[in-house]
Amino acid sequence: MPITVYGATYTVLEEPQVSTELARCANAQTIESTSVVSIQPCTTYSERSQDRFVVADWPLADGTWKFRAVFDGHAGHDTVDHIAATLPSAIHDALAQGLTAGPLAAPDVSELLRKVIADVDEGIGKAMLGLFPGGVDELAQLSDEDVAARINDGGVNSAKVLRCMRGSTVLVALIGPALDVWVASLGDCQAVLGLKQATGAWDAQLLSVNHNGTDAGEVARIRSEHPGEDECVLRDRVLGAIAVTRAVGDFLFKLPPVYTSRVFLNAKPGFQISSKIADFLGRNLTPPYLSAQSDVQHVHVPSLGATEAFLVLASDGLIDLSGDTYGLDHREPAICSKKWVEILSRADRPTAENAALYLLRDAMGWTADAVSSQLTVESKERWMDDTTIVFTPVV
Prior knowledge:
The chain has helices at 17-25, 78-99, 106-129, 135-141, 144-151, 156-165, 216-225, 257-262, 274-281, 316-326, 333-344, 355-363, 368-375; strands at residues 29-31, 34-39, 51-60, 63-74, 167-168, 170-175, 180-186, 190-196, 202-206, 233-234, 237-238, 248-249, 295-300, 308-314, 387-393. It has 395 residues and is an alpha+beta fold.
């Protein structure tokens, strides 16, 4: 049997089996006109995908608004499940309320997105802090047994704590009735707008920001907020521990360290590797280090003169695949964006097929052997990152 570069064996599937198995494993589907795939081929339950996506069309006062989102969870499923369930409705309600007074200006929608996302994150923190209304002073008076008894009820209290311990990126797109597009991003998922010009050439416009420790702007921001703390970013990670610089949840990096040492480390289920927590805890001097303030970009598509346009939202698993297959630097998201638009705008791409699945297969290497080497690996541990793609035609 063939062997992957990691030394694991895999089975080469032939057509049409490889296409069928890829579509099944990626849960390929079309919702309205939106194509979606979301894949984690490792079948071990604990390694199941922490990606989530939401596709919804909202009939509102001025017409239909399209909501598209990709959430990439980390350290567990609690936070990503919470925001996938609550953030869309919070944005819907805020948007509906704002439209009651008439049309919203573009900056108003941008600010609405920033505020709702930040409010959802703040609510996660407040819910946990409410378990200890006396704050740090109350924690100092409680034994570990008292803390554990309060937080590990297997129900409401446990959920409040676990949502703080886990985290998620946020990538949200709104397409308004007049074909305005807003993209709000937290973390390192990616949004790109593909635009076909009157000449027939295609352009790629990046609409997300790369919020991780490899981005010079993000590193400079964090260092400016924590002067004199040389290890606030270490080895391209915040406090040497987490790759993303902005996220929902992850209150280990937003609260004083006592909440980690006394609350989070007494929670069940705990962290996968508690020793990593102890390693960075001493660097947590002036929190918060992670931000929940999203970057929002807006474009009015008709003003761009495009004859066709589509929007792609993708978790960073697609960036990893693109780096491996096309030899691209994953730290250069604009380069990946151009490649994705190039693939999706091919003249021979079957337009009736799932566009997200087409892009996924190409990023996996396209051939039966290359795709099989990602689908059929004999391993109980994951060998590729969770990968989600949402493709939506705009014009």
